[in-house]
Amino acid sequence: MKTLPLEVPHMNEAEAEDVFGWILDGEASDEEIGRFLLAMTERSETAEEIAGAARALRARLIPIAAPENAIDVCGTGGDGHHTLNVSTAVSLVVAASGVPVAKHGNRAASSKSGAADTLEALGLDMDVAGATAEKTLAELGICFLFAKNHHPAMGRIQPIRQRLGKRTIFNLMGPLSNPAGVKSQLIGIARPAYVPIYAAAKAALGTKRTMIVSGDEGLDELSLAGGNEVADVQGSEFEMKRVDASLAGLPHAPVEAIRGDDAAHNAAALKALLDGSPGPYRDAVIFNAAASLIVAGMATDWAEGAAQAREALDSGKAKALLQSWIAMTQ
């Protein structure tokens, strides 16, 4: 067994990879791990530590084969706003636009309904969807990668995280450890001031193109309410930008306009969206889909990305994709 230090020092990337390798391999006690994680959270994790921890998790994951141009759309969660499932809807819209989406996620942790919960309420058999992820990604251009199926090392860590009841570095490691090895992503985080730190971690890990985004009110996706902090990461470099909905030709709306509830409520809202319902939920999905299509190289700017997202919704392609996906899990 390893002994984690009582005083948690700042670690470089290699040191963090070693330490989190011990943690993931069960070479430290539950009590030590919990104390260590809380201490890191209290002093704030550095970019080097996030990158090193993500490398340790990546080294232990179970991968799947994926198209070269596959992307992921996800958030770190924990923003406390309990919105409708924006990234889930975005995944359907983007996949219907011709970009394979390997959605990496789980059931609700801090929200009332996570992506898996809402998709299940819509009729998707999540156990089958998880088991057939590689097949549906190849044949339909979309899949759901259940974290529990691909990160067995997390099995021991999960109860520790639940006992702590607070955000830890593990919330930040997940989006950087997609089992499909995606080279482009849209990642939402709940702390605007932390965007450049997280972007530096992503840049250290390398990417074709990724946007790290956070709404000014602490939303872990692009917000319609006002401004957004955005880090545009390409290769090992990133550029900070300020973005708002007007760039995509969309109106502003308060976060309350897309407030969600339980799985049944969120599923009904997503179904209505795919059936053509207008309003802030649709606008939020179009805004985030536009960003996803930009990072995927399908759109050159926000207006073009928004137009493509609208077409995927209005043509019925996104709805048909979900129906095909559900049919494959029956």
Can you describe this structure?
InterPro entries: Anthranilate_Pribosyl_Tfrase (IPR005940), Glycosyl_Trfase_fam3 (IPR000312), Glycosyl_Trfase_fam3_N_dom (IPR017459), Glycosyl_Trfase_fam3_N_dom_sf (IPR036320), Nuc_phospho_transferase (IPR035902). This is Anthranilate phosphoribosyltransferase. Catalyzes the transfer of the phosphoribosyl group of 5-phosphorylribose-1-pyrophosphate (PRPP) to anthranilate to yield N-(5'-phosphoribosyl)-anthranilate (PRA). Pfam families: Glycos_trans_3N, Glycos_transf_3. The longest helix has 16 residues, at 280-295. 52% of the residues are buried. Strand 6 and strand 7 (237-243) form a beta hairpin. The mean pLDDT is 94. The chain has one domain (71-149, 160-329): Pyrimidine Nucleoside Phosphorylase, Chain A, domain 2 (3-Layer(aba) Sandwich). The chain is globular. The chain starts with 12 loop residues before the first helix and ends with a helix. The protein is of the alpha/beta class. The protein contains 15 helices and seven strands. 46% of the residues lie in helices and 13% in strands. A five-stranded mixed beta sheet has the order 1-4-5-6-7, sandwiched between helices. It has a two-stranded parallel sheet with strand order 2-3.
Write a brief caption for the model.
The protein is α/β, with parallel strands linked by helices and 330 residues long.
Topology overview:
Elements: H1 13-24, H2 30-43, H3 47-58, E1 71-75, H4 86-96, E2 101-105, H5 115-121, H6 126-131, H7 133-139, E3 142-146, H8 147-150, H9 154-164, H10 169-173, E4 184-188, H11 195-205, E5 207-215, E6 228-235, E7 237-243, H12 263-274, H13 280-295, H14 302-314, H15 317-328
Parallel strand pairs: 1-4, 2-3, 4-5
Antiparallel strand pairs: 5-6, 6-7
